[in-house]
Amino acid sequence: MHCLSCYYDLHGLDESRCPECGRGFEPDDPRTWSRTPRRPWPSLRVFLPIMFGIWLFLTIVFAIDVASQTPAGGSNTLAVVESAMSAFILTLVFSVVLLIGFAFGRRHSRP
Ligand SMILES: [Zn+2]
């Protein structure tokens, strides 16, 4: 049993209030406290589709941008591939930033 706000261990307390952050909880109501000692990591099932969506979006944006600069009649295939690769690198950087931000967000789980 852990606090929903700060994940303080709530076992063996006399009152139904977190001594760390003051958040109230009901021992009989599992919705008012957390079973795990910290925020769970986002699962790959959630993470991957979001990353794929961002990548697809960036690829389309880049491809449109490249296509508008390509003279009429020229082949766009290589440009589209390059767009997809740039978008992939950007998506990778974005996911790393997101994961670092999440790791820092977890840090105050313990006093
Ligand atoms: Zn708390």
Please explain how this structure is put together.
The radius of gyration is 23 Å and the shape is rod-shaped. Helix 1 (44-69) runs antiparallel to helix 2 (77-105). The mean pLDDT is 84. The protein has 2 domains: 1-37, no CATH class; 44-109, no CATH class. It contains 2 helices and no strands. The longest helix has 29 residues, at 77-105. It has helices at 44-69, 77-105. The chain is mainly α. Zinc ion binds next to loops.
Summarize the structure.
The protein has two helices and no strands. By secondary structure, the chain is an all-alpha fold. Bound molecules: zinc ion (ZN).
Task: Give structural attributes.
111 residues, 50% helix, binds zinc ion
- Portion in strands: under 5%
Order of helices and strands: HH
Instruction: Please report the total strand number as a whole number.
Output: 0
Summed up, the domain count is 2
Query: How far apart lie the N and C ends?
Result: 16 Å
> What's the rounded overall pLDDT mean?
84
Distinct small molecules bound, one entry per kind: zinc ion
Helicity, as a percent range: 40-55%
Low-confidence stretches: none
How many helices in DSSP terms? 2
Helix vs. strand class: mainly alpha
The geometry reads as rod-shaped
Estimated radius of gyration: 23 Å
Largest sheet: none
List the helices and strands and how they pair.
Blueprint: H1 44-69, H2 77-105
Helix pairs in contact: 1-2
The site of zinc ion has 8 residues, from loops.
